[in-house]
């Protein structure tokens, strides 16, 4: 048999708003917070990139200006001098030194460009150790180049006095221009050297890495908050399910108790009805015994020859009654004492015949009633067994209610039958014992 359908929970999904606000209420605030953080981080990244680009442009402009000024000063000093001493100073050795300086400047520029590319590529934050190592390497390279320039200038002091003076002036002018450009770009902060620029970029990278780490922490915290919220929602749902389960169990227990009470009431009513039926049966048997004893007494009093006369008189009386019923006539006037004696004897015989017929009918009816009562009792027992089986097997309560309705209908039918039987018995008793008139006082 199919299992019973579970009752739909009316309280699900139910979450108290004051303790566990819904995600639809929290989601706009969370989205707004995330968008604000993203905008702030984007602005910070853009600002850092602009600073880095400005510093790189200023450094490249400084390098270009220094190289162009040194070349222009050398060319001007060589071309402007009209004396043979200056013409002789433009020796191949000096030209080779200038070429070496230009190559070194180009290499330094390439290294700086590579460093700037690496800095721009690693926007998500590089390690502080790599930045410090890069700054130290750049500073060491710059110091080595300065030493080489100093040695070459010492070796070529005779040939390149004017060129060195012009180059120093050009380098000072270029340094002043680059510092002014960097100060204007950085908003008042002047970068004195490449090491300062590298240190500043390292600090910017570190700040950016801290910001990214803070962003990751915020995201992880947001994830934890969401997980805690989901866990709280799941716990609330479990509590609601347990409460619903407890309510269902209580309802089932109350329904079982109600069924047990109804069964007990039915059992008590059945016992009372059986007791009443037993008493009625005993009363009927007692009445039958009394009637039989009365008949035996009457038969003993009568003579054996009076029975035939009584039967004939009863037949005549029935025929006369039928004729009188068909054609009603006036009652005959009483004639002598003999007629009165014959009429009284015929009445007695007729009453005896009626009593015998009524006793036989009563016996037949009692037998039929007993059979009907036995059948009804069997049906009730069968229904009670079915109800007990349903309760034992925990089937659907609809079948139990149907069985109870059948039992109630049968009880109502039994009550109606008993009422009808009682009415029929009263009618028979009234027919058997009609009101007698006192004939002794008649004339």
TrEMBL record:
Q: Which N-terminal stretch is annotated as signal sequence?
A: none
Residue ranges of the TM segments: none
Q: Where are stretches of biased composition, namely Polar residues?
A: 79-88, 358-367
* Skewed-composition ranges (Low complexity): 64-78, 99-143, 251-269, 310-328, 410-426
Q: Where is this region: Disordered?
A: 60-162, 243-373, 410-443
Q: What is this protein called?
A: Uncharacterized protein
Which species is this UniProt entry from?
Answer: Eimeria mitis
